[in-house]
Amino acid sequence: MIQFFDVVKRYPQGVEALRGISLHIPKGGLVYLTGESGAGKSTFLKLIYGGETLTTGGLIVGGRNLDRITRRRLADHRRTLGVVFQDYKLLYNMSVFENVALTLEVAGTPPKQIKDRVMQVLERMGVQRYAKASPITLSGGEQQRVALARAIVHMPNLILADEPTGNLDPDHSHKVMETLQEQQARGCTIIVATHNWSLINKYAHPVVHLHEGKIARKPQWEDQP
């Protein structure tokens, strides 16, 4: 599903965010991405999303070579993803319902199906009562759950979640992890960047640990011949 080949990401100031990353993440896997602040986690996710371009090396995601991808194919690639950003990226001039529905509308989903599916995921995340409200009226934790609802509403092949439980209490954090595991059960590949080790220990999945832009720990399948 995802293959990094000796990837280096160097920013214009000369800072190397990622250094020599080689890694394979199989289809249908749920992987935690850990590391201190500045270790390269957000850059790692942005490369997969196509929000950043690598400096050297190769990156293949879902059969697409992202270091050679055209703008049109990049747009197609992003439509197959569900992304939860740290800053949520919700549109405050639209309602919660409209934010979550937007992906389905772009895909041409019939209105009745959109309504049913959006309300289903809002209820799953416990924010259905805010469907008509602007996200700006919600707390940070509530906005985070809306962002996750938006990420899963179109049943993506790959979910990238950057600190998806960062502003949540333990109960809602567990609901998020249960939701992500439900997505994995249908074959979705998921990468969760997190500092929450209690959650990692409770919901055991492989860990990729970054340290100063390098892989310090990777899943056991990487060591198999």
Q: What does the model show?
A:
35% of the residues lie in helices and 24% in strands. By secondary structure, the chain is an alpha/beta fold. α3 (96-106) crosses α4 (111-124) and α3 packs parallel to α5 (140-152).
Task: Write a short abstract of this structure.
By secondary structure, the protein is an alpha/beta fold.
- Summarize the amount of helix as a percent range: 25-40%
CATH architecture of the largest domain: 3-Layer(aba) Sandwich
The global form is globular
What is the CATH superfamily classification of the largest domain?
P-loop containing nucleotide triphosphate hydrolases
Low-confidence stretches: none
Measured by DSSP, the beta-strand proportion falls in 15-25%
Number of domains: 2
Main sheet: which strands, in order across?
6-7-8-3-9-10
What is the mean pLDDT?
A: 94
By DSSP (H or I, 4+ residues per run), the number of helices equals 7
What is the end-to-end distance? Answer: 18 Å
Under CATH, the topology of the largest domain can be stated as Rossmann fold
Largest sheet: 6 strands, mixed
